[in-house]
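ok trying again, last paste got cut off:
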Amino acid sequence: MAQPAHPAAAWPDDPVPLAPADAPVPAYGSGSLADLLPTVAAGLELPGFQPRIAELAPADRACVFLIDGLGWQQIQDHRAYAPFLHSLLAGSRGGTGRPITAGFPATTATSLASVGTGLAPGEHGLPGYTVRDPATGELMNQLRWKPWTPPHVWQPYPTVFQLADAAGVHTAQVSSPTFETTPLTKVALSGGTFHGRLTGEDRMDLSAELLGAADRALVYTYYSEVDGSGHRFGIDSDAWRGQLMTVDRLAQRLAEQLPPRSALYVTADHGMVDIPFDEQSRIDFDEDWELGAGVALLGGEGRARHVYAVPGAQADVLACWREVLGEQFWVAGRDEAIAAGWFGPVVDERVYGRIGDVVAAAHDDVIITASVNEPNESAMVGVHGSMTPAEQFVPLLEVRT
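nice, full thing came through this time. structure:
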């Protein structure tokens, strides 16, 4: 048999792992969720704030409508089910037609803290779905706040809402009554007056009313059901598309009631991707002895993992995860991820130990499940967390009067 002309071409080199420094880092400081409220606050002439999203013009009255789980790409791909929201895409981000980024990880607790505090995750200190508490060594679920941790010790910075209220701006949040007293609300979204309303229609109507109640106003409202349907059924489902139709009507309802001199910003905390239920797409940590070697705790979520090694095993765990997953995930050591800016330009000392010894962010359509320890999360169809466009890019749709 004839030999190939170039033998090396028949035996390719070992695959090169994805480089952490090449991951598409969120646009902290100029175009991320953390930059929205500081820009709005600057437009309201609050002391100490400068506009960060240069394309946004000031407004005397500002309303932020955050739709949980509705990324930029999902609106683009489902225009028939969201005609109103889709009609606003071309004017997103001050008429540029561009999205903003969520922040890393692209997950609810992290993003809501970024929105409310105007800080990146490395400062506000909610850098994942679950992270290790250095004081106890336990995993802390920052969405459900379990185990209990004093909220303002965990996140000590004031919210933009608190600063706006103190400066005399009429400030309010309109959301489900369920969220009024949660620790996440306290550390991320408190300030002014909370108004609990069960239905989306009531939230839209009251938000418009509160926006017109003063010459300067800042109102926040929220809708979670798009995310819930995506997790349970996937974004390629009738249930999810039905929720998209509902929230499209809600956004239009609010837009049509805006008082004069108002700006409505429709945004989201993250996008979402559907992951097939097969062994190639779902890697089960609880069944994988190789990935589990030297690991004391597995934190984060399927597409954005924080991995905490037993003492002395950090380098081995990093090497193993990079060897096994490096073609599908950006796999970084803690200091590498920080240096690459994954969590923002600054990481506070109190936050440093919450970040995993190894951080793994999905590049491909794949997740790391934990079927024994995370049965509910492992059963989700739609997931999020990483730095891919489908997860990171969120809308900044604008209606002004």
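cool. Residues 1-12 have pLDDT under 50 and may be disordered. The radius of gyration is 22 Å.
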